[in-house]
Amino acid sequence: MIRRSARGVRESMRYGLAFYELDGPLFALESGRRHMSLYVAEQDVVIKHKESLPGVNTARSFVKFSDLNRLPLDVVEKIVRDSVAARRTRAMQGTLPTQAELLKLWAIKEEAAQVPVPTAKAVATKTASAVKNGAPPKPAGGAAASAAAKAPARVAAKKAVAGAKTATVAKR
């Protein structure tokens, strides 16, 4: 709906949010566990439409909603269109907000919203002595990994014991 109603916006992902930009951030969409929030950069537009839309926080300039089916999309579309018009007016006047100002308005901390640093995975390799002796590589991960590697052997041993017990009972 934003792409359709706000021609010329560019989409990006930063700080764990979907941003829609037109001469800088115009909207940001945040997905929580049980709600979504639409942050609007043009605070005057949010104040103008606050009576016709539930879940509006005018101090932080966002709309919080938990059910998309209950959200009056016609009002949200008006907010989007009015925001685009207000942004184009501000761009001509040269009074565009910076990204830092918007994050402060929306109470989003950059470090809290950063994407987590990827973790490295350990890879099993053969040691020099194992290569010389022809031994298979040891699994990475310590005791848990070696216990997981031994599990199939334990299952096979239990089946063999159960089979022997069944054969003994059948002979009696």
In percent, how helical is the residue content? 40-55%
Count every helix, treating DSSP H or I runs of 4 or more residues as helices: 6
Strand content: 15-25%
Q: Whole-number radius of gyration?
A: 30 Å
Shape: elongated
CATH architect. name of the largest domain: Alpha-Beta Complex
CATH class of the largest domain: Alpha Beta
User: How far from one another are the termini?
Assistant: 77 Å
The biggest beta sheet is recorded as: 6 strands, antiparallel
Stretches where pLDDT is under 50 for at least 5 consecutive residues are: none
- Number of E strands: 6
Q: What integer is the average pLDDT?
A: 76
In what order do the strands lie side by side in the largest sheet?
1-2-3-4-6-5
Briefly note the structural class of the backbone.
Answer: alpha+beta
CATH topology of the largest domain: the name is: Aspartate Aminotransferase, domain 1
Instruction: Give the number of domains.
Output: 2
The H/E string reads HEEEEHEEHHHH
Folded structure, characterized:
There is one protein chain. With 172 residues, the protein is of the alpha+beta class. It folds into two domains: 2-105, Aspartate Aminotransferase, domain 1 (Alpha-Beta Complex); 141-172. The chain is built from six helices and six strands; from the N terminus they run H-E-E-E-E-H-E-E-H-H-H-H. Strand 5 (56-57) and strand 6 form a beta hairpin. The longest helix is centred in the C-terminal third of the chain and has 30 residues, at 142-171. The N and C termini lie far apart (77 Å).
Short description:
With 172 residues, the protein is an alpha+beta fold.
